[in-house]
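Please study the protein below:
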Amino acid sequence: MAPTPWALAVLGVLLAGPLPALLARAPWLRRSPAATMLLWQGVALAAVLSALGAGLSLATSQGWGSPAALALVVTAVVTARLGLSGHRVGTSLRAVRRHHREQLDLVTQRRGRLTVLETEQPLAYCVPALKSSRVVVSQGALDRLGTDELGAVLAHERAHLRARHDLVLEAFSVLHRAFPRWVSSAAALREVRTLVEVLADRTAAREAGVQPLARALVGLAGAPAPSAGLAASGSGRELVDRIDLLAAPPRPVQAALVTLVAVGVVVLPTAFVVAPWLDGLT
């Protein structure tokens, strides 16, 4: 039996579990958030390619006997789990967000492009949607935050909407649910959630300033975030790390190296799949 199917299978398991757990223990990667997000996306894509490629490679290397049939069944199961997970996660999220927007329409006021919630609790979050996204702030947040701080929070939430960070989180949620628990790593989903906040922080800091954003994050510390939205608020160690990162200088060399690793992670399983076919052609 050709070693390629087993190499892809082992690579898929490593990319789905141990490697994400290891990357999550390297917080210094957050200093290059865009490149690191690309790395996480590359790891996720490579895990899927490896899982699917292992079955297809085994089938083609074994002809049409029983091992090939089993490999095709495994590949079909992986594909079906991905499709079913994508359908369930997507349908659930869109239903929750639609319901939340309907509730907002009943209990909030529209002030320009803002949706204002009449509560003394300081809240600020966005509800993503294709055409009817919302940026929600509470009266408590308006009373507590200064003008520049409020501007920084709004820049943060609009950065989420422009970059469609909700789709990034949705994709990782799909992968987490599609792979078995003993393979998939919850660390990947947690770290990507932190990274989208760091990316939005970077954009808001450029637009509104580092100090106003830092003060705003402290002012909103501990505020709850609805499951339908993305919120600037945070708590605990994650919030402390995000504020520390606001003052961190750019690291172009690190970003370039991380980007190269991200590309390499995707190229590796692709090469494993394509190389045997190219050998057969030659």
Q: What stands out?
A: DSSP finds eleven helices and five strands in the chain. The first strand starts at residue 108 and ends at 111. Residues 66-107 form the longest helix (42 residues). The two ends are 20 Å apart (CA to CA).
